[in-house]
Amino acid sequence: MDGRTLRGAETRKAVLARAVDIASVEGLEGLSIGRLATELGVSKSGVFAHFGSKEELQLHTVKQASRIFYDEVIAPTLSTAPGVDRVYELMSGWLEYSKSRVFPGGCFFAAVSAEFGAKPGRVRDAIAELDRTWLKVITDAIGQAGLKADPEQLAFELNAHVHAANAASLLHGDDSAYKRADHAVRAALGR
Q1: What PROSITE patterns does the record tag this protein with (predicted)?
Q2: The pTM is what?
Q3: What burial letters (b/e) apply to 93-106, b meaning 16+ CB within 10 Å?
Q4: How far apart are CA 98 and CA 162, in angstroms?
Q5: What is d(CA 163, CA 1) in angstroms, rounded to the nearest whole number?
Q6: CATH number, position 114
Q7: How confident is the model over 153-184, as pLDDT tens digits?
Q8: In this predicted model, what pLDDT tens digit does every residue of 33-88 receive, in sequence order?
Q9: What range does the domain containing 13 cover?
Q10: Suppose 115 and one of 27, 39, 109, 157 were both cysteines; which one would form an S-S bond, judging by CB atoms 3.0 to 4.6 Å apart?
Q11: Minimal CA–CA distance to 26: which of 123, 103, 105?
């Protein structure tokens, strides 16, 4: 890479790193090309050149957050053989992802799903697709575990437990919610 291309890649990386943090706390509507340029000390035109519009910035931010989520929650479970342990690791990994504040606002997708759930458009569609994918990951892991439960129903319930912990932790500053969610997940899996 020449120097200009390398600087452009570094700027894009820095913009997306800051954008996912802002969006986890303030939502995707809290993002602006001007704000990111100011906070990062780069030109507004330089940021605009990477994304072109607020919607494109939002879409790239969602995509970046999904990469981080995959690396933090899903990838660590891939070395575990299919079974109840993998299902549990998925859920405990999600709880740790929220508790450790990988994103300062807790779960990035909980924040932006609430913000865009009723707003039609490309950003909502991208968020909804990632939510479906996450539920499918859980459902498939349950199916492979051979549990005597409806995989879709159990996936829904497990996902609800971890999301409730995220919400309680953020709203009430109650980290004991993570222990409660872990207990509920263990009970649901018969562990």
Answers
A1: HTH_TETR_2
A2: 0.93
A3: bbbebbbeebbebb
A4: 9
A5: 42
A6: 1.10.357.10
A7: 999 999 999 999 999 999 999 899 999 999 99
A8: 999 999 999 889 888 888 989 999 999 999 999 999 999 999 999 999 999 999 99
A9: 3-189
A10: 27
A11: 105
